[in-house]
Specification:
- With 270 residues, this protein is α/β, with parallel strands linked by helices.
- The chain has a single domain, classed as Protocatechuate 4,5-dioxygenase, Chain B (3-Layer(aba) Sandwich), CATH 3.40.830.
- The strands form 3 sheets. Strands 5-2-7-1-8 form a 5-stranded mixed sheet, with helices on both faces.
- The chain is globular, with a radius of gyration of 18 Å.
- The two termini are 25 Å apart.
Length: 270
């Protein structure tokens, strides 16, 4: 985001920022009422998926002047619906709060995996769109995360809201020798594979990616993408942009429900 960049940094990830602005435009056109964000950078509950049930989620980016910060209400009814739906699917899940012992007054921390996509999609509305934050469980299987996404979709279908689902994710983190995770060719391999799956509408292929490749690539995206696949069954993926301008790869994809058969390829999508 431009607001977090010094003048000499603003061209570093220009392709990704353009992609995020395009997602923001499409988000506005879709007119969602609630945003669900699956993030790898919030709470980590051992062996269980997490759903934040605090009344608000707030945070800011460190070291940025003027501040880049958001304070957003949680759609608590939908949060509890998600928790129940995930549990009904036979998956371990925990409701997560913070601070106050009463979730109705608690404010949970907002990590950068939530703040950055919300900056482009709903977080700066007046008032901001309400959100639900969910977290993966890396100990669980690929199929568990797909099933969790399907459970989230069922809960949304039973609610009265028009819901957007954001799978917040950075990809391989080992693209540069001087990066914090060093260099490994698996980062480029993993990113190319994910780009191909999105570009060719084959998100089901995510389950065939090995944990060993994910680990070598130092990717943060696999689990949330699996949830996106489960939540967006019957939808189509579109690759908007990809780049790895520093040590990690960035890919803002979009899924959309196909138009009826009479619509030509590339028709305006929901």
């Amino acid at each position: 985001m431009e607001e977090a960049c010094s003048p000499d940094e603003r061209e570093v990830a220009a392709v990704t920022r353009a992609g995020m602005h395009e997602l923001g435009r499409r988000f506005e056109a879709a007119k969602p009422e609630v945003v669900i964000v699956a993030t790898p950078h919030n709470v980590h509950v051992s062996n269980a998926l997490g759903v934040v049930v605090a009344s608000r989620v707030a945070g800011k980016l460190d070291g940025v002047t003027p501040p880049v910060e958001l304070d957003v209400a949680t759609e608590s009814e939908l949060a509890w619906r998600l928790l129940a739906s995930i549990g009904a699917a036979g998956l371990p899940a925990a409701g997560v709060s913070f601070g106050s012992n009463d979730p109705a007054t608690a404010v949970a921390p907002m990590d950068w995996g939530v703040l950055i996509p919300l900056w482009f999609m709903g977080g700066r509305h007046d008032p901001p769109l309400p959100i639900v934050v969910v977290t993966p469980a890396r100990e669980l299987s690929a199929s568990d995360h797909v099933n969790a996404g399907a459970a989230i979709a069922r809960a949304c279908a039973e609610s009265s809201h028009r819901v957007a689902f954001i799978a917040s994710a950075d990809h391989g983190h080992a693209h540069r020798p001087l990066g914090p995770y060093g260099y490994h060719p698996a980062a480029a391999e993993y990113d190319a594979l994910v780009c191909d799956l999105v570009r060719n509408n084959r998100l089901a292929g995510l389950v065939d990616i090995t944990r060993a490749l994910v680990e070598r690539a130092k990717a943060d995206s696999w689990w949330q993408l699996l949830m996106l696949h489960g939540a967006a069954s019957g939808w189509r993926g579109e690759l908007i942009s990809y780049e790895a301008p520093t040590y990690f790869g960035m890919l803002p994809p979009r899924t959309h429900r196909p138009r009826p058969e009479t619509s030509p390829p590339g028709a305006r999508r929901r």
